[in-house]
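Onboarding guide, step 5: your first structure request.
Type a short instruction followed by the sequence, for example:

Predict the 3D structure of this protein.
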Amino acid sequence: MTAARTPPPAAPAARPGPGLRERKKIRTRTAIRAATYRLIREQGYDATTIERIAERAEVSPSTVLRYFPAKEDILLPDDYAPLLVAELRARPAGEPWRDSLRHVLRAGIALGALEDPEAARLRTRLMVEVPAVRTRMTESRADTGRLLCRTIGERTGRTPDGFEVRVLVMSLMSGLTEASLYWAEHGHEDDLGVLVDRALDILEQGLAPGKP
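The system replies with structure tokens like these:
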């Protein structure tokens, strides 16, 4: 007798999609971001002004600044923080929290891989070359870290703003930043996911003796 097949989960079709106004906002953000990346590839970061971005995206400079308060903000990836928090909350209750964090950070790399790979490489190269971009990326990851602190506090019963939780999470965020910088500094030859795994191993186990 053939076992009955489990029906697939219901498709999210019942959930209403974004309305006309929201779709217009998404299109505008996408156009501004695409124009910025094209201009930076053509003429470099410093020569890519808000005015030139607006002209290429066919919007006004005030529109660019309404969507992105500074040029560095255009280069930030989409906000994955809520998705990462949801991933962490969905992990099994009895799973060691270090394993949960490793899963969540791997999921973040997988989400990043869904975007244009050239955009990811350009962004990390600019992190190396442009101090203002590196500062903004670091600030963004600190914001993500604060969300993770709250979620880890929920899972472990610790105070989210407690010393141990803050040191752990901010060490992870710093490790992610250094993995991204190393990836760009070495011509994007390595696999970023592998570098993140190595960073997690170092944070958990320390430096292996006898290695350069």
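Each response can be followed by summary notes, for example: Residues 131-156 form the longest helix (26 residues).
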